[in-house]
Amino acid sequence: MVERAHVRTGATGTVPPTAHPDIVLITRHYYVVIENIAYFYRDGNNVFIRLITSEDYILNQSLDAIEPRLDKRYFSRVPRYMIANHDAINAYHPLKQGKLGLTLRPEYREPVYVSKPTARKFKQWFEV
Protein backbone atom coordinates (compact mmCIF):
# COMPACT_ATOMS: atom_id res chain seq x y z
CA MET A 1 0.00 0.00 0.00
CA VAL A 2 1.27 3.47 -0.88
CA GLU A 3 1.15 6.06 1.88
CA ARG A 4 0.99 9.84 1.35
CA ALA A 5 4.05 11.66 2.66
CA HIS A 6 5.55 15.13 2.95
CA VAL A 7 9.16 15.98 2.16
CA ARG A 8 11.02 18.12 4.65
CA THR A 9 14.67 18.85 5.34
CA GLY A 10 16.60 20.27 8.24
CA ALA A 11 15.89 20.05 11.94
CA THR A 12 12.51 21.29 13.06
CA GLY A 13 10.40 20.66 16.11
CA THR A 14 8.80 17.71 14.32
CA VAL A 15 12.08 15.85 13.79
CA PRO A 16 12.71 13.21 16.46
CA PRO A 17 15.90 14.01 18.40
CA THR A 18 17.36 10.52 17.84
CA ALA A 19 17.06 10.75 14.06
CA HIS A 20 19.82 11.56 11.62
CA PRO A 21 19.97 15.32 10.93
CA ASP A 22 19.22 14.71 7.24
CA ILE A 23 15.62 13.59 7.56
CA VAL A 24 14.01 13.88 4.17
CA LEU A 25 10.61 12.25 4.51
CA ILE A 26 8.02 12.71 7.21
CA THR A 27 4.55 11.20 7.26
CA ARG A 28 2.22 11.31 10.21
CA HIS A 29 3.99 8.42 11.91
CA TYR A 30 6.95 7.56 9.71
CA TYR A 31 10.38 9.16 9.32
CA VAL A 32 12.94 8.28 6.67
CA VAL A 33 16.59 9.22 6.76
CA ILE A 34 18.43 9.92 3.57
CA GLU A 35 20.40 6.66 3.62
CA ASN A 36 17.16 4.67 3.25
CA ILE A 37 16.06 6.39 0.04
CA ALA A 38 16.81 4.60 -3.24
CA TYR A 39 15.14 7.10 -5.56
CA PHE A 40 12.27 9.48 -6.20
CA TYR A 41 10.23 9.00 -9.38
CA ARG A 42 7.28 10.50 -11.20
CA ASP A 43 4.49 8.29 -12.46
CA GLY A 44 1.82 10.25 -14.29
CA ASN A 45 0.85 13.19 -12.09
CA ASN A 46 2.20 11.61 -8.90
CA VAL A 47 5.67 11.59 -7.35
CA PHE A 48 6.80 8.62 -5.31
CA ILE A 49 9.73 7.74 -3.12
CA ARG A 50 11.14 4.22 -3.24
CA LEU A 51 13.11 3.05 -0.24
CA ILE A 52 15.99 0.59 -0.32
CA THR A 53 13.50 -1.94 1.08
CA SER A 54 11.40 -1.53 -2.13
CA GLU A 55 8.58 0.25 -0.26
CA ASP A 56 6.90 3.10 -2.17
CA TYR A 57 5.31 6.23 -0.69
CA ILE A 58 3.44 8.92 -2.58
CA LEU A 59 4.66 12.49 -2.06
CA ASN A 60 2.81 15.77 -2.32
CA GLN A 61 5.66 17.69 -3.98
CA SER A 62 7.17 17.75 -7.44
CA LEU A 63 10.64 16.46 -8.30
CA ASP A 64 11.60 20.08 -9.03
CA ALA A 65 10.67 21.04 -5.46
CA ILE A 66 12.49 18.05 -3.94
CA GLU A 67 15.72 18.19 -5.95
CA PRO A 68 17.25 21.39 -4.48
CA ARG A 69 16.81 20.00 -0.96
CA LEU A 70 18.98 16.96 -1.63
CA ASP A 71 22.76 16.73 -1.36
CA LYS A 72 24.10 16.71 -4.93
CA ARG A 73 26.95 14.42 -3.87
CA TYR A 74 24.46 11.61 -3.22
CA PHE A 75 21.47 12.35 -5.45
CA SER A 76 21.23 13.13 -9.14
CA ARG A 77 18.44 13.69 -11.63
CA VAL A 78 18.92 10.81 -14.02
CA PRO A 79 16.08 10.93 -16.53
CA ARG A 80 13.62 13.79 -16.11
CA TYR A 81 11.24 11.56 -14.17
CA MET A 82 13.70 10.31 -11.52
CA ILE A 83 16.18 11.47 -8.86
CA ALA A 84 18.42 8.57 -7.82
CA ASN A 85 20.63 7.97 -4.82
CA HIS A 86 24.20 7.14 -5.88
CA ASP A 87 24.08 3.96 -3.78
CA ALA A 88 20.95 2.76 -5.62
CA ILE A 89 22.76 2.71 -8.96
CA ASN A 90 24.51 -0.65 -9.34
CA ALA A 91 26.01 0.10 -12.72
CA TYR A 92 25.62 1.89 -16.02
CA HIS A 93 26.37 0.71 -19.53
CA PRO A 94 26.66 2.49 -22.88
CA LEU A 95 23.81 2.29 -25.36
CA LYS A 96 23.39 3.47 -28.93
CA GLN A 97 23.51 7.16 -29.73
CA GLY A 98 25.48 8.07 -26.59
CA LYS A 99 22.79 7.15 -24.06
CA LEU A 100 23.49 5.21 -20.87
CA GLY A 101 21.41 2.43 -19.36
CA LEU A 102 21.21 2.23 -15.56
CA THR A 103 20.86 -0.80 -13.31
CA LEU A 104 19.03 0.24 -10.13
CA ARG A 105 18.66 -1.47 -6.78
CA PRO A 106 15.80 -1.93 -6.06
CA GLU A 107 14.79 -2.39 -9.67
CA TYR A 108 12.52 0.07 -11.42
CA ARG A 109 9.62 -1.36 -13.44
CA GLU A 110 11.07 -0.26 -16.80
CA PRO A 111 14.55 0.45 -18.18
CA VAL A 112 16.11 3.70 -16.97
CA TYR A 113 18.21 5.72 -19.38
CA VAL A 114 20.44 8.78 -19.13
CA SER A 115 20.19 10.93 -22.26
CA LYS A 116 23.20 11.71 -24.43
CA PRO A 117 23.31 15.42 -23.39
CA THR A 118 23.54 14.49 -19.69
CA ALA A 119 25.60 11.26 -19.98
CA ARG A 120 29.00 12.94 -19.51
CA LYS A 121 27.85 14.88 -16.44
CA PHE A 122 26.30 11.69 -15.01
CA LYS A 123 29.53 9.68 -15.48
CA GLN A 124 31.56 12.38 -13.72
CA TRP A 125 29.10 12.42 -10.80
CA PHE A 126 28.92 8.61 -10.58
CA GLU A 127 32.70 8.08 -10.60
CA VAL A 128 33.34 10.45 -7.68
UniProtKB/TrEMBL annotation:
GO molecular function: DNA binding; phosphorelay response regulator activity
Highest taxon of source: Bacteria
Name this polypeptide is given: HTH LytTR-type domain-containing protein
UniProt organism field: Chitinophaga caeni
UniProt signal peptide: none
Domain HTH LytTR-type, chain residue ranges per copy: 30-128
InterPro entries assigned: LytR-like (IPR046947), LytTR_DNA-bd_dom (IPR007492)
